[in-house]
Amino acid sequence: MKNYKIPIKNILKTIMGNVDIGVRTRKMHIIRELNKIDLSEKVILDAGCGVGEYMFEVFSRYNPKELIGIEIDREKVNHINNCILNKKGWSYMKVICGDLSKDTLPKNKFDVCFCIDVLEHIKDDKNAIKNIFDSLKNNGIFIAHVPNLETKRFFKEFINYHQPDHVRDGYNLTDFIDLLENVGFKIIKTKYTGGPLVELSWEIEKKLEKILPRRLSQALCYPLTFVSVFLDIKKNLRNGNGILVISQKIAHYQDYMKHPLFDLIIFPMHDWKKCEKEGFRNRDSHLIQEFEKSEKIRKILIVDRPITLPEMILKKRFWRVKKGEIIKRSKFTCLTKVSEKIFVLDIFSFDLIQPLVLQRDWWSYIFRKDKTVQKIREAISYLNMENKVLFLASPLATPVIGKLDEKLVVFDAIDDWTKHPQMKDRRGWIKEGYEIIKEKADLIFANSIHLQIFLANPRTQPIVVFNGVNKEYFNLKENKVPLDLKNISKPIIGYAGTLAKRIDVGLLSYLSSKLPKFSFVLIGPILDKKWIKNLKKLPNVYYLGNKHYSELPFYISNFDVCIIPHSTDFEYGEEPIKLYEYLAAGKPVVTTPIQEVDKFKDIITIAKTKEEFLEGILYWLKRIDEDKSLPQKLINSLPESVSWKSRANIMIENIIKILEVKSEK
Predict the structure, then answer these.
(1) Cα–Cα distance for residue pair 465/410, rounded to 1 Å
(2) Among 110, 572, 592, 608, which is disulfide-ready with 420 (CB 3.0 to 4.6 Å)?
């Protein structure tokens, strides 16, 4: 049998290369990622180099300055050094004998390290990763590949498959990311390797090996293997038998780690499903996007409000987010990874009657249910979240406080729902929610002075964090006219925002009658059709519907003057985000004297009467003609402190301060 296997092995390797499907798949994924990194003249470490397969591949392809391997098996080390490197005279390549889990590596030496299917062999894997981290230079790249513990098997006999030389069967992606992040690596990219077709090929091959010589079974499976591997590297896999993670050593590691990292569990005002459909336009979604960029935050779990069949039908909304990678799913619960740091939990409820009866109060009702809380806890446990900070944007989400083992409770006040015309507090649950916040929140943020006063309490003084804007988003390099604006005559007086009772219908009717040759354009969602129906009858008022946030800059850029015609009779504590967005687009603004606009009084018109509002529009149209630099002046009037990044950083800094105080107790 030996004599039979050797020539077959040599023939197969000559014709097809390495025919082992696991090795082929892994190698193609690794090489594909290495091709994206500049390895020329770099100092590279192969951690757990074995017989040097990847070392020689890197040497032949990328011309590194120095290439060092470390291997615990002395026989392999001697073979590579004595039989290959010394004979060839390759002084810039060498292999040292050592244990990765012990301190045997030079400090701050390497630009890149790759560690391919090694860590599952090492008992103290955390210390091995720490030693690799220390051996890398600042901003050095670490490429690691490990078996996936959650591989989906096809045949029952492989469900509990264990490789004898492994100290663990593998890792799930979340745990492996945690292992790297806890040492200090910043995750750059993750991907699965060895998808379903590769896994099926491997299992068939293993079954054939029971009745045929190994190399012969590999030869018979080769056509399927070839197709499997080719498709594997082309697809964005949702699962696989391997996990590939690329991470980076963050410069100034000690400074980075001096504050505790924390995880955020966010109950937003606006569901991720809504943001997915309309764009990330609201305060909570802007803040979440900035939280994701912070190196102080490890993971973010977004808990969408559970959804029922009536809501799916009435709002034409699917029960879970559509984009992202589903990482955990039961029959009616779905945990989706939508970015490297953000995970969304969606829950479907079969309750048909209560949502119709309770309406808005369903929000509070469903979060009072033990089953709902248990599903949230399961998601938190699956993500291995630590140092948990509970971040609420709705008073109706307060029933979860104290049930998720959180270290900190944060509330971000967007509106005063006790005054909001769309928020009827029939059962007093909104008022109760605000009282719970005053009683239990460790930190309260408010987007207006009104809300700061409203939520003031002996325990916690709310911190005002005004709304913001990303100026670059509205600073268009190339403008375009949306199709539904092309046939609307100039000048255009524009409004972008929700259309409900806060819109002063009488004011807009007055303006449209006094300026019959002007076009008044309204865009945004309608929350109260009856309230604004008379506006649609006016000949020079155009309602163009709700627009995705990605389209908003193009509409605003084609407005001549932007307006905020809000009635002061329907104020509920909110600072208007649209004011920042208008100015960021370089547009003049006329507004009624609503809350929080006084700080812009030197650069906008605040009209106390309808006559002043009319005069303000005419004044700014004249200024536009006279001063061509006006748009840039308005853009420059917004300091950098109004960016959403600055707003989010204020929140993060305050969260860390309280976490540090709590950790000292």
Answers:
(1) 13
(2) 572
